Amino acid sequence: MRKTVIAGNWKMHMTCASAVEYMTKFLPLAKEFPSDRDVVIAPPFTAISTLSSLLKETDVFISSQNVHWEDQGAFTAEISPQMLLEHEVRYAIVGHSEPRKYFSESDEQINLRARSAQSNGLIPIVCVGESIEQRERGEAERVIRRQVEQGLEQLDANNLVIAYEPIWAIGTGRTCESKEANRICGLIREWVGTSDLVIQYGGSVKPSNIDEIMSMSDIDGVLVGGASLDPISFGRIANFNIEN
Ligand code: 13P
């Protein structure tokens, strides 16, 4: 049985004060979430400690937005698995298209991050996805396959999440058609060869499209950016209902 993982990636948004304010609205909603899903928030590093205390007695998990492969050392601006584990962080996002684009993160570095997360007991959320130019050139499948194969090298595919996030759907309001997202997620499952692999879709997920996305056979969850910044919207997303 594949786990459902609904994650909100706050990116570079929210101070500690706004995270606390958010939780006053979100936690009452979280009490009603069905127990068949993991609901996860990925705050900026500065809000992790505050959220860790606030979420202690709840079923909401914390993810980091990055993790380094060394335990400690001269790696300015990086964060180690131990630093995250101290705050009971459960998941770690790696390979998001933003660090891939702005900081030229390579598949090799992403793989090192994911391996470090996994070997320290964090669950990596490995992001993959093509640009609009790659899709228009007919290269989407080849690009995603390379990212999946290199990103997952030496990893236990039973203990990670892959997030398929087509770059052209991120923050644009232009959601990938759910059947097409499902087709790509099905291909990823085939390439990895693990039927229990958990695969999320990400890119302009919102309350109005969550039920349709989650009704797809190969989509096990979502990675949400913009709509996760509003507690009511993210509450609705986490409370998706595919029977409607
Ligand atoms: P949006 O939901 O804002 O499109 O962002 C998706 C994303 O990048 C999640 O990691």
Describe this structure in words.
This protein is an alpha/beta fold. It has a single domain, classed as Alpha-Beta Barrel (TIM Barrel). It has helices at 16-30, 45-54, 81-85, 97-102, 107-119, 132-136, 140-151, 178-192, 210-214, 231-238; strands at residues 4-9, 37-42, 60-64, 91-94, 123-128, 161-164, 198-202, 221-224. Helix 7 (140-151) crosses helix 8. The longest helix has 15 residues, at 16-30. 1,3-dihydroxyacetonephosphate binds at residues 9, 96, 165, 170-171, 202-205, 223-227.
Uncertain segments: none
Text of the CATH class: Alpha Beta
- Tally of discrete structural domains: 1
Characterize the overall form.
globular
Give the total of beta strands.
8
The helix/strand order is EHEHEHEHHEHHEHEHEH
Per CATH, the superfamily is Aldolase class I
Secondary-structure-based class equals alpha/beta
Number of continuous helical runs? 10
Question: Approximately what portion of the residues adopt beta-strand conformation?
Answer: 15-25%
Bound heterogens, unique:
1,3-dihydroxyacetonephosphate
Indicate the CATH topology. Answer: TIM Barrel
Helix content: 25-40%
Cα Rg: 17 Å
CA-CA gap between termini: 22 Å
| Known CATH architecture | Alpha-Beta Barrel
Q: How would a textbook summarize the main sheet?
A: 8 strands, parallel, barrel
Strand order of the largest sheet: 1-2-3-4-5-6-7-8
What does the average pLDDT come to? Answer: 97
Please give a quick description of this structure.
This protein is of the alpha/beta class and 244 residues long.
